[in-house]
Amino acid sequence: xxxxxxxxxxxxxxxxxxxxxxxxxxGLQVEGDREVKLLVSGVTASRALIEAAxxxxxDAILVHHGLFWRGQDGRVTGWxxxxxxxxxxxxxxxxxxxxxxxxxxxxxxxxQLGRLLGFQTSGRFGEQDLGFVGxxxxxxxxxxxxxDHVAGVLGRQVTCVGGSDQAVRRVAWCTGGAxxxxxxxxxxxxxxxxxxxxxxxxxxxxRETGVAFLACGHHASERYGAPAxxxxxxxxxxxxxxxxxxxxxx
Length: 250
Hints:
The protein is α/β, with parallel strands linked by helices. The protein folds into two domains: 4-97 and 224-242, Udp-n-acetylmuramoylalanyl-d-glutamate--2,6- Diaminopimelate Ligase, Chain: A, domain 1; 109-221, Udp-n-acetylmuramoylalanyl-d-glutamate--2,6- Diaminopimelate Ligase, Chain: A, domain 1. Helix content is 36%, strand content 21%. The strands form two sheets. Strands 5-6-8-9-10-7 form a six-stranded mixed β-sheet. Helix 7 (182-186) links the parallel strand 8 (171-174) and strand 9 (192-195). Helix 2 (47-55) runs parallel beside helix 3 (78-89). The longest helix is centred in the last third of the chain and has 13 residues, at 225-237. The protein is elongated and about 55 Å long. The two termini are 36 Å apart.
C-alpha cells in the first residue's frame, strides 16, 4: 500500500514531465481520498475505463489520455461531469501522462511499440525528440510485407500508402497522431514510417518520396506504454497493477 503523493512522485521521477511542452497537465489530474493498493492502467480516461476500474475496486487510475486539454471548454457538464462524478464519488485518483509517456526510452509508447514490432532503436528525431528511428530485426522485402506484420501484431487493419518494392531496412515510428512528423522522418533516410493516423497530405508525400506511410490506429499504437509504466511503478512500490483494455477502433 502507498499514498497518492508517493505514487505521483515515483511517476514524475520516471517520466520527468517538466521537460515537455504538452497539450495538457501531466501528473495527478483528479485527487481521490484512498490509499493505493490497486493501480489500474488504461489508454484513455473514458467513462468505460473509470467504470471498469470501479468494478475492479481500483484506488488509482493511470492513463495516457487524461481529462483536461489545452483549449477545451472548462465547464463541468455532460460527459466531463459524468466522469468526474464517478471518480470523486469513489475516491479514485487519476494520473495522466501524455508526451512524457510517449517519449520514455524504455517504458514509453514508442519504445514499447518498437519492441513489440521487432525494431531496434538507433536514434530519435522530431520535435522534442518524440520520434524513434532504427531498423527491423531483419529487413522486410517490401513495405506491404511490413504492413502485414504490423497488422498481425496489433490485430487490426493497417493503411499503407506509398513505398516501393525494395526492402525496408530503416524505419521511423511515433505513436498516436504523429502524421505531422512524416517529413522529419523522411529526412532521416528511412524506408517506412509507422504511426497511428494519416491525414490527406501524407498520402501524397508517401507516393512522391517513395517512403511508405503506415497508419495502424491511434489507440492501437498507444496501448502498450501505460501497462508497462503501471506494472513497473507498481513493482517499485509494492502495490498491485491491472491493465484494462477498452476497445477503440480509432
